[in-house]
Amino acid sequence: MKHLLIPETQLMLFSKLQAQFKSYDFELKAWSEQQLNSLDYFQNSPSLALCFWEQTSSHWLKQIQARLPWLPIVVILNPEQTELFPEEIVPSEILFTPLNPKETSFKLNLLLKRNQTAETIPNQFPEMFQKHHAIMLLINPENGRIVDANLAASQFYGYPLQRLRQMKISDINTMDPHEIQLQLSKAAKEQGNSFEFEHRLANGELRSIEVHSTPMTIAGNKRLFSVISDISARRQAQQALLKSESRYREIVEASEQGICLIDHDDLILFANPKMLEILEIETQMQLIGCSFASFMIKEDQPQILELLECRPKKKEHSQEFKLQTTRGNQCWVSLFVTPLYDEYQVSNSSLLMVTNITEQKLWEQTTQKTLHERELLLQEIHHRVKNNFQLIISLLRMQVRKTEFPEVKASLKKSQNRIRTMALIHEQLYLSKNIAQVYFDEYLKILTRELHQAYRPESRACALRFKLESLHLELSQAIPCSLLVHELLSNAFKYAFTEQQIEPEVCICLYQEADRIYLEIHDNGIGFDYQADQKLNSLGLQLVRQLSEQVNGDLSCVNDQGTHWKISFDLERSKHTNLAH
User: Fold this and answer.
1) pLDDT tens digits for 206-231?
2) CB count, 10 Å around CB of 165?
3) CA-closest candidate to residue 484, choices 454, 430, 440
4) β-pairing, 437-439 with 330-341?
5) For residues 345 and 299, is the Cβ–Cβ distance under 8 A?
6) How far is the C-alpha of 222 from the C-alpha of 188, rounded, in Å?
7) Is omega for the bond preceding 98 within 30 degrees of 0, making it cis?
8) 1 to each of 23, 48, 220, 513, how far by Cα in Å?
9) Is 320:338 a contact under the CB 8 Å cutoff?
10) Which element (helix H / strand E) includes 474?
11) Residues contacting 277, CB < 8 A, separation 6+
12) Which has more pLDDT, 465 or 411?
């Protein structure tokens, strides 16, 4: 049954025709202008509006056009009427009296058939459809024709509304027409209501869109009510993300470091080709689901588990371990663990960066072995040199015993002490962990005490005071400095103090300022005339000057309540590997 909407004011005019229209499957529905303002009248969707033309019906027709723009309007005229329609009223058909019900029904059916493609949205929400900002289309699922479109659709696609209403969905959808028809059928049968397509705009631009389609029955015909969203920006973001993920995956795949992702149970979720190579595994599927700790040698497994347990503390950790490959080989690796967190800041997985350091470890072992051998060799050399010095000292001691001349004995004893000073250096190096440098502060204490002990029979006992910083000297500086100290201390112990001296004292100072070393030796004895001794050109003073020049040092002597020697020189940086363990 098709519903004909007529003005309530013309109910009497149509009363004689009502029975005849009904026989042709038309039912008249009279509505006032007030009722047109209510949505209740759309409970039975009208097929068209029909009215006799008169001045009073003008406003009713305008209401129809405003509220139901898709509804065909048929106006019945008296042939004798000369009054013209207002420009804003555009009827779909004009009939003239007297009306022949059969002929009129035929014309109305023909009009409805002709306007079938102009059917629009469900009558429950015409105003919402037209004014809504969302893009909306009404589509015939049988042939894909766009029955209606709203203003937002016109603005989005760039086509006038009238043009859109004459188009098929395949005119704007870039998908294959056969596939489009399959999707329309699926939506009509409610087998799916959400789709993503690419639509072409009037200017040729392609846009990614998301469609939500709902099947509806309008005037007895099934239609798809489709709401369209432009998701081009989202799709571009997704594509950019996929491209970024692809780029990072390429980096991970090409990395020379083994990269492995494990879950909170220590099970492997992902491994790159380098990781497979380290573990000597052919395919990733052989590794997925395995415990990473199972590849550690047994003694290291507790350490790796402890390392992984640190993940909740949000700390990165690095450690070296031995891995057992699937072929039974062992390799050294450096393992760097970074915890990964979800949106709730809970660590459910970790990223492992694994570097094969087997070659490095082998090189270190070889180097350590070589250094150890070198250390033993140098220790042996120092030991041999010290023994040779001891032999010379012994020979000189024998010579002292044989000679009867006091002056010769004194010279031989001086030579003994000087050789002993050098031998003491090599003895220190032999006993030290560092065979390239001398712990000069410790050496000065030993040398001073030995010299003090050696000269006690010939001189007064004196107090020794040390102000020594912990310093290392290269052998090239330690030997001349030790001989220089020997000469100055020997003179102090032998000549600085008289029998009347109260509380005799010798002080040795060693310190560093920037890269400059300062060595001071002073006593509170009778003093020393440095200028006079220079003129005498004694052997002791010559040695002191030459030894100072040998280390490129500055030498000075001041008589201030005793003798105060001061030597300064630049610290020589080691050119050798530090062999301390």
Assistant:
1) 999 999 998 887 766 788 989 999 99
2) 21
3) 440
4) unpaired
5) no
6) 8
7) yes
8) 10, 12, 9, 112
9) no
10) strand 472-474
11) 258
12) 465
